[in-house]
Amino acid sequence: MSSLPAWTEGVRGFVFGLIPLAVLTACSSPTESGNSCRTVANCLFDSAPICDAASLTCRACTMGADDVACRNGRPATPRCGPQGSCVACLAHSDCASRDLRKPACRSNACAPCKSANDCQSKLCSADGSCAPVAEVIYVDNKNGSCSGIDHRGTTDDPFCSLRDAVIAATAGGKTLISVAPSSKSYAALSLSVADGLTSLTIAGGGSLPGETRIEGIGTEPALAITGSGTGSKLAVTMRNIDLQGGTKASGIFCEKGAELFVSDVRLHDSGGDGINVSGCNLTVDSSHIFGSKGSGIYVGGSTYALSNLMIWSNSVSGIALGAGNTGTMRFLTVYANGSQTSSQPAGIDCGATPLAVEHSIVFDNWSRASGSYSLDSQLVGCSLTNVVTSDKTASTGIYKTMIEFVNAVSPNIASIDLHLVKDSPKNRDCCVDKVQQSPIAYDLDGTTRPQGSAADIGAHEVQ
Q1: What is the DSSP annotation of 274-340?
Q2: CB-based contact 355:384 (threshold 8 Å)
Q3: Does residue 304 lie within any of the structural domains?
Q4: Angle at 247 between CA 322 and CA 181, to 5 degrees
Q5: What is the pLDDT of residues 217-260, one digit of tens each?
Q6: pLDDT at site 287
Q7: What domain count does the chain have?
């Protein structure tokens, strides 16, 4: 018989009853580097995700040796990364087979593609997925050395010219063309419903738009698009391309009911307007338009959506709108357009209809529109919301005299950079964190809006 009091038996039973729970808790709780483990399931800290077989302690992973352990312990991060933690990917190939909408490995995480180099096919779709290689027609003039028309349009046997690729796309029922970077410009391209086209996407295959140029000569636009006016529709998308119209032509010309979507392009130094559309459905996003002899964009009798654009040093207006238009203009930076000889409003000319301009910078555009060479009349006929301008006559604008751009003055206008300087008191005063509810979730560079408490005015969201 026990000599202990009866109440101690209950306490002893209670204590022993807690031991299995304590042991279980010790075995399953997260352990840091150097602490004991039995399997990778015990190592839950990112800094030490691997259970070392010899010492039974948690440690950092070793690249090239611990991918299996990472995959077993953390299926969502199956590769050992350079900092000793398990990561989602080390290369694009780690992502492509897991989620079609996140095929690119960026900072060791799978993400939507942003550029041609994120995809094996060299063509990033608008939804962030990579177009399948088999659905893409390839063009490469090989710096001007490519010749002949007897090519298959594949990655190993690309067409020499865009025209040959368009003919093959029409015949084969394909809609995607990837154009390789080249030191030699590609010839101007004309697209029409009469060619049998209904839809076509043309995308540069380089990291930057400037690596792939389409150039017109004389009266040739770099890209001319003609719809049917009625009936059959022609929808054209142009991405990641550099376009320059001929000495007597616009960079892009669109007419007769065609639909045109332009994104991540450079339009510059054309003899006419950067873009000239009549009776088209126009969308221009995340692009640079500069140095043309006419206006940056001219729109007549069309629907339009203009967003995240930097437009500068065009000789007439940044944007000129004729009669019969409807659309939106948001998050634009329109700077230093106009000339001493131009009598047109140099910033944005909305014409006779009070068209809306929102969350934009329209600054230091010069012309003789007011009778003398001045900053007045940069905005004419427009309805303004959150528009920062140096035009004193824009009564509903936000009048400012200073904005700090990264590089606002250069003898080479192609090197002008209208991104906002970070941590600038002047920019905080005029533009940063001013748009409480942003209608667009990204900026010119693809940066998410907002980065601060609210979105920034203009094409650039300061990070």
Answers
A1: SEEEES-EEEEEEEEEE--SS-SEEEES-EEEEEEEEEE--SS-SEEE-SS-EEEEEEEEEES---S
A2: no
A3: no
A4: 100
A5: 999 999 999 998 776 789 999 999 999 999 999 999 999 999 99
A6: 98
A7: 1
